Amino acid sequence: MKIANLLPRRPAPPPTEAPPQPQRRSFLRQLGMGALLAGVAGEAYMMLRALVPNVLYEPPLRFKLGSPQQFPEGVTFLDEHRVFIVREKDTLHAISATCTHLGCTVKDITLDQPRRVTIQGRPVDIHAEFHCPCHGSKYYGEGTNYAGPAPKPLPWLAMEIAPDDGQLVVDASRIVGHDFRLKV
Ligand code: FES
User: Fold this and answer.
1) Which of 96, 98, 101, when mutated, tests ligand 1's pocket best, judged by the most ligand atoms within 8 Å of its CB?
2) Number of CB atoms found within 10 A of residue 129's CB
3) How far is it, in rounded angstroms, from Cα 97 to Cα 136?
4) Cα(148) to centroid of ligand 1, in Å?
5) What are the pocket residues of ligand 1 if the criterion is a CB atom closer than 6 Å to any ligand atom?
6) Taking the domains of the chain in order of start, what are their residue ranges?
7) Alpha-helical regions (H) of 1-127
8) Could you tell me the distance, in angstroms and rounded to a whole number, from the CA of residue 152 to the centre of ligand 1?
9) How far is the CA of 138 from the centre of ligand 1 (A)?
10) Does domain 62-183 have CATH number 2.102.10.10?
């Protein structure tokens, strides 16, 4: 009998991992670089996206209303545009229906009888008023505020006749004076 067979056997050493091959190392490096670039691109996109505001769907400030002849004497409310078109014989003007307090839509009230009031020192006969349902502001028919928290009159909006088709055009981006009249 051999002596070597009598000695306790040593456990076999664990198999050592084979060193990564150059091809595999290069693949891993490219994978890491790709992930890094994707992360940087994502961050850059998020930063740029934050600079661009979300789209707001606001009504256009300049709009056509068809033939001027369709507006009868007195006040016509256009719900879609929140504007009053006022005809006085052969003139038209437009008054915003947006309350100057916090932006509610005011209602037009036709008076049973004309009422004489003083506006900027002048006596004026008014036939209608505008009342705000939200906090009780009141305006004379030509837009001057006289009661409630509204801080200023309802603005008058610019109007013109479109040269191409003769339609009435309101430009809500331009405020005009209370002496504005569009002859039609
Ligand atoms: S919003 Fe009109 S009175 Fe307040």
Assistant:
1) 101
2) 20
3) 14
4) 8
5) 99, 101-104, 132, 134-137, 148-150
6) 22-57, 62-183
7) 22-51
8) 11
9) 9
10) yes
* pLDDT, tens digit only, all 184 positions of the chain: 555 555 566 666 666 665 656 676 777 778 778 777 877 777 877 777 766 656 666 778 999 999 999 999 999 999 999 999 999 999 999 999 999 999 999 999 999 999 999 998 999 999 999 999 999 999 999 999 999 999 999 999 999 999 999 999 999 999 999 899 999 9
Residue bearing tokens 């505001």: 53
pTM: 0.69
Q: What residue type is assigned to position 136 of the chain?
A: G
Which ligand 1 atom is at minimum distance from the Cα of 106?
Answer: 2
Backbone angles phi, psi at 58, to 5 degrees: -105, 150
The residue whose CA has the least distance to atom 1 of ligand 1 is 102
Atom of ligand 1 nearest to the CA of 102: 1
What is the four-CA torsion angle of 150, 122, 120, 142, rounded to 10 degrees?
Answer: 40
